[in-house]
Amino acid sequence: MPELDIISLRLPLIVFGLLIIGCVVSSKISSRFSMPGLLVFLLIGMGMHLLLAGTGNADAAGALLSPQVANAIGTVALGIILFSGGMDSSFDDIKRVFRTGTILSTAGVLLTALLVGSFAYLIALGYDRGDLWPQCFLFGSIISSTDASAVFSILRSKRISLKGNLKPLLEYESGSNDPMATFLTLFFLHICLLHSNGKSVGAGNLLMMIPEFFYKMGLGVAIGVLVGITVVWLFNHIRLDYDGLYYVLGLSAIALSYSLADLCWGSNGFMATYTCGVCMGARKFVFRNTFLRFADALGWLSQVVLFTMLGFMATPALIVRHWWLGLVMAIALMLVARPIATFICMFKSRFPFKAKVLVSWVGLRGGAPIMLATFPLLLKGDASPTGGVDGDWSIYDMIFNMVFYLVLLSVVLQSFTIMPLAKLLGLDAPLKMTPPAPISFDQITYLDNRKLQKSENAPDDLAYNEPATYVIAEDSDIKDIQIRDLKLPEGVFIVMISRKGRWLVPRGGTILKADDSLTVLATPLNHKAAAEFFAKKSHNNL
């Protein structure tokens, strides 16, 4: 039937293929114009919605993309994004900002949710105020978290970095605050259900949030660590005949961490997934480097699917009709709630005042809030207050579209002002760009050196460990020395040199210069000797 062509299998596959190509192209566009890629996909989704509405097929497509389906897809996509972000996080950087970042990602999110919810109640989201306080605080909870992919696509696009521990702090906060926002969203959804069914919502319901939060977060962290350690152990102790199966094994970490956490007395699956990624990223295992690239590719693919889907679910007519309401809430979020929460949470931190100002502004909203906004849509028709906007939409439709609008405003307004503000505050620093390596190395042997050392018949041709990087300091003893004269430990080789943005193939007569970045390979048995050698002679950049 002609009316069903729009939802045939061929057309979605064509659209999906074009979106993947758009992902690659948009990375260059976003970098050039300092714009996160998520904005491109959100706009593509909105364009598809308007196109289908113009052809009269919006209802058919909407039947396929129900709130239940969208929520399921969004949950999977967000879990993959959090896992990928966790693997890319530096554990050493996290340790330096752990206390401040944890306060921001927990108490900061809670304060932001309460402040935005209170402000929303004052204007009642465009409704008659009535008894809408649970929905108002639900709205505040949904919009309370920042987006890591949006923040760092902006920071990296300008080819400048931030001084001190600002970048690790923003990275850790953005990657770890989604679980708190998810917990608050689900909690206030429960309050909305109680309220809509005429049940009283007393102080006990609100106070139970505190122990429940620590229980769910703590259990989520424990499960994530357990799954991460287990999968890494399997990587290093199971010799698979096909390399591709290692990546399949890695996928199990994402599925197991989320599902086990969700099954274990309702602990936070997103926290478990993120923690699992951090745990695996901080450990060494076979094919680690290539699996990192694989996880990054999955993260990008998930962003394409998530943001395009969420853009498609938006209702442009509702956004346009109530643009002033979204603008007021954006001002409340960006200029009131986020700064107040940031300064309170960072009151006793060692960060100077200017750094706190920048952190308060670097609070871009992204895909996570929009995805969380699909949760209330599951209650439409069951627990939604009647008498929606113009009698056509429920308050949960209103919440979804207001969250979508706030994300668009946040990306557009903040993305173009972050770097100018950093320069104005004197917090920017030149970013040393390292060109892509012409070759890559990966670990393909066991990493349990103790077993290798105990083995009397250890083979002489052991595969080499993943490379280490060392930077030659200005006052290094090996500066201006030929490689043949270094007297490197046995089994240690300098395989590449990065010098002033260029890669050099080292030879015996190559003279090492200050600021040279050396890529060094060593056998598992000699890696410690290599580290000790370069630690004495040069500055270790790891």
Describe the structure.
This protein has about 550 residues and is mainly alpha-helical. It has two domains: about 1-430, Na+/H+ antiporter like fold (Up-down Bundle), CATH 1.20.1530.20; about 450-540, Alpha-Beta Plaits. Helix content is about 65%, strand content about 5%. It contains 23 helices and seven strands. The chain has helices spanning about 10-30, 35-55, 60-65, 65-90, 90-125, 135-140, 150-155, 165-175, 180-195, 205, 210-235, 245-265, 270-280, 290-315, 315-320, 325-345, 355-360, 365-370, 375, 395-415, 420-425, 450-455, 525-535; strands spanning about 160, 430, 470, 490-500, 500-505, 515-520, 540. The strands form two sheets. The protein has a five-stranded antiparallel beta sheet, covered by helices on one side. A two-stranded antiparallel sheet has the order 1-2. The longest helix has about 35 residues, at about 90-125.
Question: What is the topology?
Answer:
Layout: H1 10-32, H2 37-55, H3 58-64, H4 67-88, H5 91-123, H6 133-142, H7 148-157, E1 160-162, H8 166-176, H9 178-196, H10 203-207, H11 209-237, H12 244-263, H13 269-281, H14 288-313, H15 316-321, H16 323-345, H17 353-361, H18 367-372, H19 374-377, H20 395-415, H21 418-424, E2 428-430, H22 449-454, E3 468-471, E4 492-499, E5 502-504, E6 517-522, H23 527-537, E7 539-540
Antiparallel strand pairs: 1-2, 3-6, 3-7, 4-5, 4-6
Helix pairs in contact: 1-14, 2-14, 4-13, 4-14, 5-6, 5-8, 5-9, 5-16, 6-9, 7-8, 9-11, 11-12, 11-13, 12-13, 16-17, 16-20
